[in-house]
Amino acid sequence: MNSIAQNLKYIENTLADGVTLVAVSKTKPIPDLMEAYNAGQRVFGENKIQEMTQKWEEMPKDILWHMIGHVQTNKVKYMAPYVDTIHAVDSLKLLKEINKQALKHHRKINCLLQIKIAEEESKFGLSENDAIDLLKSEEVQKLRNVKIKGLMGMATFTNDSNQIKNEFDRIQVLFKKLKITFTEFETLSIGMSGDYKIAMDCGSTMVRIGSSIFGVRNYSI
Ligand SMILES: *Cc1c(COP(=O)(O)O)cnc(C)c1O
């Protein structure tokens, strides 16, 4: 088995220019994260606020923490002091709460709108039209403590690479269209361990990779 540092290096060597790697460390213990940190990794992704906050408290302060999971409005306050980017923003209500909590800490929090591109019913996210309406709404334009930097999507969990490509293509088209109007748009967060190469072919600027770096997750611990 390869070490975390070796896995990280391998992945880095396969990334296209300008693609940011979010090392998805959910469920993994701090020593594993520190191995990646010591190999130079500074961007980590977590999907539970409590777990992320505990890691933030104990780890070096130059880490950029990305919340990649679904966020409940009432929990935003716990990560507002430090979170760099929230990937799965899918409502005006959540965006307003992020803005309110960021303001309390005199911060600006980066946000990505999650677009529903997968067939599966279980995946969260906005429809393309709802995302456009949200971005254009006056209420959103007034928010000063959030910066909506782009889109995030998750493809269907399938071996059918054509289907994955079609889903990533759809979000890429939307991203390019929105970029014309929303000049702050720079991030298209698509691609995980199993599909990040397809995602890069579809214009990904940020990949979220967990198991290929840290090994498979054991949820029973
Ligand atoms: C867990 C997770 C990932 C990473 O998945 P891997 O298959 O382990 O690379 C990426 N994005 C989100 C939203 C996740 O929840």
Automatic annotation (TrEMBL):
- List the keywords (alphabetical): Pyridoxal phosphate
Q: Which InterPro entries match?
A: Ala_racemase_N, PLP-binding_barrel, PyrdxlP_homeostasis
Q: Which residues carry this modification: N6-(pyridoxal phosphate)lysine?
A: 26
Please list the residue ranges annotated as the Alanine racemase N-terminal domain: 2-217
The record's listing under CDD domains reads: PLPDE_III_YBL036c_like
Origin, by domain of life? Bacteria
User: Which family, according to the similarity comment?
Assistant: Belongs to the pyridoxal phosphate-binding protein YggS/PROSC family.
Described purpose of this protein according to its UniProt entry: Pyridoxal 5'-phosphate (PLP)-binding protein, which is involved in PLP homeostasis.
Tell me what this protein is called: Pyridoxal phosphate homeostasis protein
Native source organism of the sequence:
Aquimarina litoralis
